[in-house]
């Protein structure tokens, strides 16, 4: 796998321009990549297949509509590192930037594993008012915070977020301790997030890859 790396910080370049990889166009495909530090997943339909993404805080962020898929036996991980200069109580994977329930954007992670070298990792935080993120069939190590998700210290956002979990496994899969605003999805609720139509993939992914059950 090729390595995409960048050591820029938000202080140096601003939040968006500090990203290692920025995807703003529609119909972006990333396959078999190591993306190290930050992925700005913003604007458009995106498909990430069998990628290893490594970072510290909010390292998958933006307002894109994206499917992250592990397909077959390839390594596919989200790896969370500790940030020595950051808030020790705020290790976060996603900061999806949907601002209204009328916006048809969000991130769907299907299969793969969450691991790392830090602890009490949040799967997402409400950077904006109405983020939408779903993890399905995902193996979660014990590094995941028991509550799972953060309202970004803004309690009112618990009413507007869409954070979902479906058939996930591992020591970090603890539905009994999740925040009350987290949805444990039914089969019917999860189905739209498991298929390529989530990113309109049948229109532009050629040939359409197979999504494992």
CATH superfamily: Single-stranded right-handed beta-helix, Pectin lyase-like
Categorize the overall geometry: globular
Instruction: Flag low-confidence runs.
Output: none
Estimate percent helicity. under 10%
Keywords: Aspartyl esterase, Hydrolase
Enzyme class: hydrolase
Family: Belongs to the pectinesterase family.
Pathway: Glycan metabolism; pectin degradation; 2-dehydro-3-deoxy-D-gluconate from pectin: step 1/5
Write the layout of secondary structure elements.
Layout (H helix, E strand, L loop, with lengths): L2 E3 L4 H4 L7 E3 L4 E4 L2 E3 L2 E3 L3 E5 L2 E4 L4 E3 L2 E5 L7 E4 L10 E6 L9 E5 L2 E4 L4 E4 L7 E5 L2 E2 L21 E5 L15 E3 L2 H4 L10 H4 L9
Parallel strand pairs: 1-4, 2-5, 3-6, 4-7, 5-8, 6-9, 7-10, 8-11, 9-12, 10-13, 11-14, 12-15, 13-16, 15-17, 17-18
């Amino acid at each position: 796998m090729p390595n995409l790396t960048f050591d820029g910080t938000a202080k140096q370049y601003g939040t968006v321009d500090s990203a290692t990889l920025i995807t703003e166009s529609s119909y972006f495909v990333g396959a078999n990549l190591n993306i190290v530090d930050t992925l700005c997943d913003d604007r458009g339909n995106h498909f990430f297949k069998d990628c290893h993404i490594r970072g510290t805080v909010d390292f998958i962020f933006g307002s894109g509509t994206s499917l992250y898929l592990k397909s077959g036996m390839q390594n596919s991980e989200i790896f969370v590192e500790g940030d020595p200069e950051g808030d020790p109580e705020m290790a976060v994977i996603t900061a999806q930037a949907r601002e209204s329930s009328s916006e048809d954007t969000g991130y769907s992670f299907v299969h793969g594993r969450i691991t790392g070298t830090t602890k009490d990792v949040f799967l997402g935080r409400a950077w904006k008012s109405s983020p939408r993120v779903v993890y399905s069939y995902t193996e979660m190590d014990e590094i995941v915070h028991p509550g799972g998700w953060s309202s970004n210290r803004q309690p009112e956002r618990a009413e507007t977020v869409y954070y979902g979990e479906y058939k996930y496994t591992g020591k970090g899969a603890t539905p009994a301790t999740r925040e009350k605003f987290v949805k444990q999805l039914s089969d019917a609720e999860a189905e739209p997030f498991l298929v390529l139509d989530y990113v309109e993939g049948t229109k532009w992914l050629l040939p359409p890859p197979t999504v494992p059950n």
